[in-house]
Amino acid sequence: MTADPVTKVVIVGGGSSGWMAAAALSRVIGKLPGFSITLVESEAIGTVGVGEATIPQIIGFNRMLGLDEMQFMRETRATYKLGIEFVDWLRPGHSYVHPFGTYGLDMLGIEFQHFWIRGNELGDTTPVDAYSIAAMAGKAGKFDWPRPDTKSPMAKLAYAFQFDAARYASFLRSLAEGSGVERIEGRVVEVHQNGETGFVTGVSLDHGTKVEGELFIDCSGFRSLLLGQTLDVPFKDWSRWLPCDSAVAVPCSLGGRNEPLTRSTARAAGWQWRIPLQHRLGNGHVFASEHMDRAEATNLLLANLDGEPLAEPNQLSFKAGHRARAWEKNVVALGLAAGFLEPLESTSIHLVQSGIARLLSLFPDKSFCEVEIARFNAETDREYADIRDFLVLHYSATERDDSEFWRYCRNLDAPDGLREKIEMFRSSGRIFRENNELFTEASWLAVMLGQGILPQSHHPVARVLDDEETLTRLAHIRGVIAQTTQQLPTQDQFLQQHGGVMPAEERRIA
Question: Which end of the chain is more exposed for a tag (fewer CB within 10 A), N or C?
Answer without folding.
Answer: N
